[in-house]
Fold this sequence. Notes:
The chain has about 120 residues and is α+β, with helices and mostly antiparallel strands. It is about 55% helix and about 15% strand.
Amino acid sequence: MINASLAESGLCIERFMRIRMLTLLFTVIVFTLGISIASKFEEVIEEAKIIVGEPIIIENVPSGTVELASSVSRCFKDSRVRAVIIKNHGVVAIGKNLDEARSVVESLEEWAKVLTVCKIFNL
Length: 123
């Protein structure tokens, strides 16, 4: 059952990727996950927003499920979204190629670091 679910979720993402012709990157990054759990991404760094777009934070559901793949795919239907943050799990980013997807992740993490420092100093 789990293998079938994993296969179905993979097919859902694969179909989405073929339609948009983009590269998908999943990673776990500490500051971004912290901000996603504690609050939301606010507009702080304009340059990061240009690269990251409109990041969306979604609740975590079991890994490898059709539900998770569908939730992530739905978020990317909005062309302004380049990163989906899954609480307590990780980040899915898209780009025209791997370098662009990596830039989204790196900019998102820098944005999260700035927000973390602001929260530490109650700014």
